[in-house]
Amino acid sequence: MINMEIRDDYKFLRVEDAFKALHLNISLIGVIVELDFPTASDCSCTLRIIDPWHSGSGLPVKFIARTNRALPRVESIGDIIFLSNVKIVLVNRKITALCNETSSSFALFNGEHGEGFVPYQSSPKFRIREQDKSFLSNLREWMITYKFEDGSCCFTSLKDIKEGEYLNLNCQIVHVSKDDKDRCYIFVWDGTEMPPCSFVVKSERLPLCVEPEMLPTHVLRTFPTFGSVLRIIVENVTEKQAIQPGQHVKFLNLFLQVNMGLWSATFSPSTKMQYTMSRETQSFSPQREKFSSRWNPITRCISSPSHSGITGVAHEDAPFVTLMDMLTYSNLCLCR
């Protein structure tokens, strides 16, 4: 157990003690392990925090503000938050810390070991003290070996998705874009192939994408060349908080649908983003190394009986490539 004694002049409570402090105003420090997403129509958001003494799923913290700009804009799951004068209340019969803009304050810090002591976002009233730096350093050190017990149900691979169902997805974010209607498109990948879509053929031409405009070629060239990329559509967003390309995250309660022959997912009111362990992040590395290199000479065979009419041409000096390899390779000429 690391040495993080709570001093009287701070009056910080451990997360486990906050569950016993109903109707009291307290101060907390914790690691963010789960986050929901505020929308333009609702100036509130909820996240979950843990500390070295609480091994459960975490304490919910609900933020209420007059504008979305006053809400915490978390850059990454695993960052650290300081909370001052939050009230412990019941929200939907669950113990929750309520952070009100008018009476509470907070500060957000990078959770990575070795980072500095300047918050990347804080309330106007927040001032860091020397004791805070010790707490912050200890939490960062503890997170290196921490094992998060999320208690959630199983996660579904993209190869097993079904239309009209909710799912939990463990994936990598490969791109994020936003249109002029405050709609955000998150492109995610887990190294597996999505099943084919069934749709009724109509007279009009089917779209090649669900977003208003096709992504430019230089962006497509950054996508993995093996496995499917799923588009997640988020309506009425004001911030792309905690969603950055290259991150490995867990989305809870995504809704899957097929629109004009294309797979997409949308956020539900209960959709959240959850902490991903460093060792889970590493599990994607072999897939990236294996499939993302240009012209990687990996033998890919077609075993489905439905493809029995396809002729395979093999040459010992020719690499096997995917269609995505061909479409995004800068020096390729196609002839017919």
Automatic annotation (TrEMBL):
The Telomeric single stranded DNA binding POT1/Cdc13 domain, residue ranges: 12-144
GO molecular function: single-stranded telomeric DNA binding
Keyword Translocase found: no
CDD domains, per database record: hPOT1_OB1_like
SMART domains, per database record: Telo_bind
Keyword annotations from UniProtKB, A to Z: Chromosome, DNA-binding, Nucleus, Telomere
InterPro entries according to UniProt: NA-bd_OB-fold, POT1, POT1PC, Telomer_end-bd_POT1/Cdc13
This protein's GO CC annotations: chromosome, telomeric region; nucleus
Location(s), subcellular: Chromosome, Telomere; Nucleus
Domain of life: Eukaryota
Gene3D superfamilies named among the record's database cross-references: Nucleic acid-binding proteins
PANTHER family in the record: PROTECTION OF TELOMERES 1, PROTECTION OF TELOMERES PROTEIN 1B
Protein name: Protection of telomeres protein 1
The organism's taxonomic lineage, starting at the top: Eukaryota, Viridiplantae, Streptophyta, Embryophyta, Tracheophyta
